[in-house]
Specification:
- The structure holds two protein chains of two kinds.
- Chain A is α+β, with helices and mostly antiparallel strands.
- Chain A has a five-stranded mixed beta sheet with strand order 3-1-2-4-5.
- In chain A, a hairpin with a 2-residue loop joins strand 4 and strand 5.
- The longest helix of chain A is centred in the middle third of the chain and has 16 residues.
- The two termini of chain A are about 30 Å apart.
- By secondary structure, chain B is α+β, with helices and mostly antiparallel strands.
- Chain B has a five-stranded mixed beta sheet with strand order 3-1-2-4-5.
- In chain B, strand 4 and strand 5 form a beta hairpin.
- The C terminus of chain B is likely disordered.
- The chains are: A alpha+beta, B alpha+beta.
- The structure holds zinc ion (ZN).
- The site of zinc ion has 4 residues of chain B, from strand 2.
Chain lengths: ~140, ~140
């Protein structure tokens, strides 16, 4: 009767950052057509919420998939310190060569969190505003 | 397939302590959750049932029935209780969100007879939740709990 369970834990974080969507290969008129007001030259910002989902066996000694005492500082050091109150285009090295769309921000955050030693990072989800959200996982 | 989700809330106390650990280790691993006097949360539980609607009624299940099951199995056991002392199903386990959600899954899975239990999502706070789903082929294993 009892089937094996898949258990995951999701933790929500927040960061505030600005970005500008602009492809340097294209002229400004093309950029405006493609990205609309997101291409405005000085950038704009969002209160992003970030959901990090981890999965793996529940440790019987602690009852936990991952200890928040480890996950929180890992996310803080690898993502929030680099992204919170920053201009993503210039303050985060990876976005010198990629456009900081929320799709790319999701992938970059996933890449940074992937080495988390205590559990598998299953999914990264970002709400850019309360009206749109983006998810990334490497399950193809 | 149709998925129906019903939400209930319950308020409960707990603390984390492993008798196999020294006092120092308990404080290090569990931090402020180790306070032996306990603390509490307003848990929010979302239970999802999946299946095909009955052509005669147009319903997958009667939400009144589901509400009754959640009240009997979960709220009556856990609401305004101390999870370390008053819930026999959690005896010997640390009452983390992971373990509580898995216990709720086990309590519900045989009681849901119309459709199948699809997901148990338990929020300890708006910033922390656990999902339990059935392990399926092709999904990478979270271990059996
Ligand atoms: Zn707690």
């Amino acid at each position: 009767m009892s089937q094996p369970l898949h258990v995951s834990l999701t933790r929500r974080y927040r960061f505030a950052a600005s970005h500008r969507l602009h492809n340097p290969q294209l002229d400004q008129a093309e950029n405006l057509r493609l990205y609309g007001k997101c291409a405005n030259p000085y950038g704009h910002g969002h209160n992003y919420t970030l959901q990090v989902t981890v999965t793996g066996p529940v440790n019987p000694e602690t009852g936990m998939i991952a200890n928040l005492g480890e996950l929180d500082p890992f996310v803080e050091q690898n993502v929030l310190e680099a992204f919170d109150y920053k201009y993503l285009n210039e303050d985060v090295r990876e976005f010198e060569s990629t456009i900081p769309t929320t799709e790319n921000v999701c992938r970059e955050i996933y890449r940074r969190l992937r080495p988390f030693p205590s559990a598998k990072i299953e999914k990264v989800r970002i709400e850019e505003t309360s009206n749109n959200s983006f998810e990334y996982s490497d399950e193809g | 397939m149709i998925r129906i989700t019903r939400k209930i809330e319950f308020a409960a106390a707990h603390f984390y302590h492993n008798p196999n650990f020294s006092a120092e280790e308990n404080r290090r691993v569990f931090g402020k959750c180790n306070n032996p006097h306990g603390h509490g949360h307003n848990y929010v539980l979302e239970v999802t049932v999946a299946g095909e609607p009955d052509p005669a009624t147009g319903m997958l299940l009667d939400l009144k029935e589901l509400k009754g099951i959640l009240n009997r199995e979960v709220a009556e056991r856990m609401d305004h209780r101390h999870l370390n002392y008053e819930v026999p199903e959690l005896a010997g386990q640390i009452p983390t969100c992971e373990n509580i959600a898995a216990v709720i899954w086990r309590l519900l899975e045989s009681k849901i007879t119309k459709g199948k239990l699809d997901r148990v999502r338990l929020y300890e706070s708006p910033d922390l939740f656990v999902d339990c789903t059935a392990e399926t082929n092709g999904r990478r294993a979270g271990e059996r709990v």
